[in-house]
Amino acid sequence: MGSGHEKQTAFRGRRIACYAARVGPDYRKPATWALGTSVAGRYRLEALLGAGGFGAVFRAFDLHTQTPVAIKLLTRSAMLHPDAVPRFHREARLAMSFRHPSTVRVFDSGDAGEGTPYITFELLEGVSVEERLAAGPIPVEEAVAIASAVLG
Q1: Strand, coil or helix: what is 64?
Q2: CB-CB contact of 57 with 51 (8 Å)
Q3: Out of 64, 78, 121, 134, which could bridge 74 as a Cys pair, Cβ 3.0 to 4.6 Å?
Q4: Is the confidence at residue 135, as pLDDT, over 50?
Q5: Which residues pair with 38 in a beta bridge?
Q6: Are 104 and 124 in contact, with CB atoms under 8 Å apart?
């Protein structure tokens, strides 16, 4: 994913929720989005979970369903590319059509304002792969369980 400082975040040891790349402080922040902001009149941003060259993923609260969700918004840098918005919409359509027990469920997509598209999906809590690996080697039984969950 680019910088070599990628962070793959997995929750419950079976689902990959987002990718994050560590880069300069403002370069990869989403355009005009701050914590507490309401997106599309429905999702309140609560915490930044990760950011990469294409998007930023936030923990958000769905005001309609009263449940936590993850929401992905395009970054400022991505909005500079003419194919970014169509590509993001393609990603949303594909993600919404894909169903597998080891993937995150996608709930919604639309325009967040200022021409910025968003995708909301299931928020999964847990430790990241980076955190799990930092804790030491993964025992064979756990590795097999993780692989089985991913392969379905």
Answers
A1: coil
A2: yes
A3: 78
A4: yes
A5: 44
A6: yes
How far, in Å, CA of 57 to CA of 30, rounded? 9
Per-residue pLDDT of 45-74, as tens digits, reads 999 988 877 888 999 999 999 999 999 998
If phi > 0 it is left, if psi is from -120 to 50 it is alpha, else beta; for residue 65 that is alpha
Strands 15-21, 38-39: pairing kind:
unpaired
Q: How far is the C-alpha of 136 from the C-alpha of 101, rounded, in Å?
A: 27
- 99 within 8 A of 106, measured Cβ to Cβ: no
Degrees to nearest 5, angle at CA 12 with 147 and 112? 115
Length of the chain (residues):
152
Query: CA angle, corner 122, sides to 39 and 8, nearest 5?
Result: 100
